[in-house]
Specification:
Its EC number is 1.6.5.-. By secondary structure, the chain is mainly alpha-helical. The chain has 29 helices and four strands. The strands form two sheets. Strands 1-2 form a two-stranded antiparallel ribbon. The chain has a two-stranded antiparallel ribbon with strand order 3-4.
C-alpha cells in the first residue's frame, strides 16, 4: 500500500469510527469503547508508518479534483502534502487523541452520553488530521470548521449546567468572529495566487524563478491572522479558551495539546512565506504574541481553578509559537508545538485525576486539605514532570523547545534576515524572557498548592490561658472557602471574601466532574466520608487517603506515564528534528539559555518565598503577594470580557432590541392594521345580511330613488 494511501486512511479511520460509534451507541453499547479507541489507535499507528516512510525527505503529494469553482484555474482539490512538518504533527495528533480516548474510557466510564462524546472526539481528531495533511485551502477550511462545531458540542458536554452552555456558545461565536475574515483572506489569497494549493502558493513565493509577488500581502496576512487568533486563542480573541474548561478535562487535553488551538499556528507555519512577504504583518504577529504571552502568564498566576491555570498557560505557550513564526523560524515553532503537545496533554490529564480524587478543581481547597496530589503518587510524579517541562527546566522537553524559540528571536534581533524586521525579534525576545519567569512562577505555585499543601496547614497550637478575670476570646475559625464560580464541569472555589465569591449555582452544582459526582454519592451513602477537599474544610475533617475518590482506573494512570516519556525526553532530539523541519539549528544558545533559565529560577524562587510568607501568616496562596495590585484584575483576565461586553455585546443587544421593537410595533402594526380593517369591514357587511327579502327590496328601491334623483339634479 502506498504512503499516500496510508495517509488517506489516517483521517478516514477516526471519521468512520465516529459514525459507527454514534450508530452503535444505543443499539450495541458494548461496542462503543472499542469503536472509540481502535480506529484512533490504528490511525496513530498509520501516522507513525507514514512518518517513517516519508523520513523527512522531499514532500509527497497527491491530488484529485473535487469540484469546479467556475474558474478553471481554481478548482477545489482533495490534495495531500506529506512533508516532515505534516507527518510529525500528525503523529502528535494521533498519539494524543489515542491517549485521550483511552483515558476517557475510565474517566467517563459512567457517563450516560459517553457514546456521543467518543464519537465527537473521533470526528474532532479526523478534522485536525485533515487540516494537517491537506494541501488545498478549501479542504483545510472544511476541517477547520468541523473542529469548531465539534468543540461547541464537546465544551457543552455537561449541557445541564449554565456555565457549559454559555462556554460552548462563547467558544463558537468568538472563533467564528475570526473565521469570517479568515475565509475572506483565503479567497483573496487563492484569487491573487491563482490556486488554492498550499504547496503551489509557497513555491511561487519562495522560488526566484517564479518572479511572483502578492499584490496585497499585508491585507491578506492580517485577514488570515484574525482567524488564527480566534482558533489559537491569541489576543484579542483569546477569551473563549479559559471558559471552555467547562467541558470534560479529557476534552481540554485534546483541544489544548494537539487539535483546535494548534491548528491556527500550524496554518501560519504552512503558509509562512505569505506572512514574511509583509514586514508589517510580522510586527503585528510579534506584538500579538508578546501581549498574549505576558498577559496570559499573569492571569495564570492568579487563577484558583487548576484547569483555568492550564488554560491560560496554553494561551501563553501558543504565544511562543506565534513569536517563533514572527521571526521566520518555522522549525522552532513546530518543535515547541510538538513538545508542548506532549506535556500539556500530560498536565490536563493529570489535573483530571486530581479532580477525580479530590472532587474539586480548586487549588486552594487542595492545599488546605493537605495537597491532594501526594495521595495519588502517579499523579504526583507525572504532574511534577509536566510542570518542570512547562517551566523549561533542563533537561525536560520544554527547555529545548522554548530555547529554540528564544534563540531564533535573538538571532533576528541581532542579525535579521532580509525582509524580517529586527523589531519583531526584540519584541519576542523580551516578552519571551519575561514570560519564562512568570511561567516558572505559576508552575511552582500550582505544584506547591496541589502537592505540598500540608505544609500550609500547621497544627493548631493550644491557646494560651487567659489572664484571670479576662474574657476568653473565641478560637479563630479555620479558613473556609466559598464557591466563587462554576467551571461548568466542577465547582471552583476561592477563599471566602475574595473576588467573585458568592452563592453556589445549584443548577451548575448538579452536574460536576465525574470525580465530584462519585464523591458526593459516596458521601451520601457513608456519613463518615468527606466527599471532597472543599467539603473537608467545611466539616473540619481531613479527606485523608481514604477520602474523596482515591481509586483511579489503571488506564488513566497508564496514559499519564505514556505522556510523561516525551515530556521528559523529547527535547533531546533537537539535533535530529532539523532534518524533518527544513534545516536550521534548533539547539539552545548560550546567552538565551542562561537568561531564560535564570529568569525561570528567579520566578520559582520568588514564588517559593512568597508561599512560605503566606504560610507563615495562615494563608496558602502566594498569588496575591506576587501580583499585588494586579491580582484583582488578573483573576478576571484583566477584564477583557467586561470590555467586550460594554464595547460590543451591549450595543449589539441594544440594536437587537431596537430591531425587535421596530418589527413588532411598526412593521407588524401595518400587518395587524390590515387584518383589523378587513375584520371590521366584514362585520359591517355581515350586519346588512339579515336574510329578510323585504328588507333587501326596500334597500334596492331606496337606492334606485337616490340614483334617479341624482341624475335629475345633475341634468338640471
Amino acid at each position: 500500500m502506498s504512503t499516500t494511501t496510508l495517509a488517506v486512511l489516517v483521517p478516514l479511520l477516526p471519521a468512520l469510527g465516529a459514525v459507527a460509534g454514534l450508530a452503535a451507541g444505543r443499539r450495541a453499547p458494548g461496542f462503543v469503547r472499542p469503536l472509540a479507541v481502535l480506529p484512533t489507535l490504528t490511525a496513530a499507528v498509520l501516522a507513525v508508518v507514514v512518518a517513517v516512510r516519508q523520513g523527512g525527505r522531499a514532500p509527497l503529494t497527491a491530488a484529485t479534483e473535487l469540484t469546479p469553482t467556475g474558474n478553471a484555474a481554481l478548482p477545489v482539490e482533495l490534495a495531500l502534502q506529506l512533508d516532515g512538518t505534516a507527518v510529525l504533527v500528525a503523529v502528535l495528533v494521533g498519539t494524543v487523541a489515542t491517549c485521550v480516548q483511552l483515558y476517557s474510557t475510565g474517566y467517563l466510564r459512567d457517563d450516560p452520553r459517553y457514546a456521543s462524546y467518543a464519537a465527537l472526539v473521533s470526528l474532532f481528531t479526523a478534522a485536525m488530521l485533515l487540516v494537517v495533511y491537506s494541501d488545498d485551502l478549501i479542504v483545510l477550511l472544511v476541517g477547520w470548521e468541523v473542529m469548531g462545531i465539534c468543540s461547541y458540542f464537546l465544551v457543552g458536554h455537561y449541557w445541564e449546567t449554565s456555565a457549559a452552555r454559555a462556554a460552548s456558545l462563547k467558544a463558537f461565536l468568538v472563533t467564528k468572529l475570526g473565521d469570517v475574515p479568515f475565509l475572506i483572506g483565503i479567497l483573496a489569497l487563492g484569487s491573487e495566487a491563482g490556486t488554492f494549493r498550499i504547496s503551489t502558493i509557497v513555491t511561487r513565493l519562495t522560488s526566484s524563478l517564479a518572479d511572483f509577488q502578492l499584490d496585497h500581502p499585508t491585507v491578506i496576512a492580517l485577514l488570515l491572522l484574525a482567524g488564527v487568533a480566534g482558533k489559537s486563542a491569541q489576543f484579542p480573541l483569546h477569551t473563549w479558551l479559559p471558559d471552555a474548561m467547562a467541558g470534560p478535562t479529557a476534552v481540554s487535553a485534546l483541544i489544548h495539546a494537539a487539535t483546535m488551538v494548534a491548528a491556527g499556528v500550524y496554518f501560519v507555519a504552512r503558509l509562512l512565506p505569505v506572512f514574511t512577504a509583509s514586514a508589517a504583518a510580522l510586527v503585528v504577529l510579534a506584538l500579538l504574541a508578546a501581549v498574549t504571552m505576558a498577559g496570559s502568564a499573569l492571569a495564570a498566576l492568579a487563577q484558583d481553578d487548576i484547569k483555568r491555570v492550564l488554560a491560560y498557560s496554553t494561551i501563553g505557550q501558543l504565544g511562543y509559537l506565534a513569536g517563533a513564526l514572527a521571526v521566520d523560524n518555522r522549525g522552532a515553532a513546530i518543535f515547541h508545538l510538538l513538545s508542548h503537545g506532549a506535556f500539556k496533554a500530560l498536565l490536563f490529564l493529570a489535573a483530571g485525576v486530581l479532580i477525580h480524587a479530590a472532587g474539586t478543581g480548586s487549588l486552594t481547597a487542595m492545599a488546605r486539605a493537605g495537597g491532594t496530589a501526594r495521595r495519588v503518587p502517579d499523579v504526583y510524579w507525572t504532574l511534577t514532570i509536566g510542570l518542570l517541562a512547562l517551566a523549561a527546566v533542563p533537561p525536560f522537553s520544554g527547555f529545548f523547545s522554548k530555547e529554540a524559540v528564544l534563540g531564533a528571536a535573538e538571532h533576528t534581533a541581532l542579525d535579521p534576515a532580509a525582509g524580517i524586521p529586527a523589531a519583531a525579534g526584540w519584541i519576542v525576545l523580551v516578552a519571551g524572557l519575561l514570560t519564562a519567569a512568570l511561567t516558572a512562577a505559576y508552575a511552582t505555585r500550582l505544584w506547591l498548592l496541589a502537592c505540598r499543601g500540608e505544609a500550609a496547614v500547621p497544627p493548631a497550637a493550644a491557646p494560651a490561658p487567659a489572664p484571670a478575670g479576662a474574657a476568653a476570646e473565641p478560637a479563630p475559625e479555620p479558613a473556609r472557602t466559598s464557591a466563587a464560580r462554576t467551571g461548568g464541569s466542577h465547582a471552583v472555589t476561592a477563599p471566602a471574601g475574595s473576588l467573585d465569591a458568592g452563592t453556589p449555582d445549584t443548577e451548575d452544582a448538579a452536574a460536576p466532574e465525574p470525580g465530584a459526582t462519585e464523591a458526593v454519592a459516596l458521601a451520601a451513602a457513608d456519613g463518615t466520608t468527606v466527599p471532597s477537599a472543599e467539603a473537608a474544610l467545611d466539616t473540619g475533617r481531613d479527606p485523608g487517603p481514604e477520602r474523596g475518590h482515591p481509586h483511579q482506573p489503571p488506564v488513566m494512570t497508564l496514559v499519564l506515564w505514556v505522556l510523561a516519556v516525551p515530556s521528559l525526553a523529547f527535547g533531546l532530539f533537537y539535533d535530529w528534528l532539523p532534518h524533518w523541519l527544513g534545516g536550521g539549528s534548533l539547539g539552545p544558545t548560550l546567552v538565551t539559555s542562561v537568561l531564560a533559565t535564570g529568569a525561570a529560577a528567579a520566578g520559582a524562587a520568588v514564588t517559593w518565598a512568597a508561599w512560605r510568607h503566606a504560610v507563615t501568616y495562615g494563608s496558602v496562596d502566594p498569588g496575591p503577594a506576587l501580583l499585588g495590585r494586579l491580582h484583582r484584575g488578573a483573576v478576571d483576565g484583566f477584564r477583557v470580557d467586561a470590555l467586550y461586553q460594554r464595547a460590543f455585546v451591549t450595543p449589539v443587544q441594544g440594536a437587537a432590541r431596537l430591531v425587535r421593537f421596530l418589527d413588532r410595533e411598526v412593521v407588524d402594526a401595518y400587518v395587524r392594521g390590515a387584518g383589523t380593517a378587513t375584520g371590521w369591514l366584514g362585520r359591517a357587511v355581515r350586519l346588512a345580511q339579515t336574510g329578510n327579502v323585504q328588507t333587501y327590496l326596500s334597500a334596492l328601491l331606496a337606492a334606485s330613488v337616490v340614483l334617479v334623483l341624482a341624475v335629475v339634479l345633475a341634468g338640471a
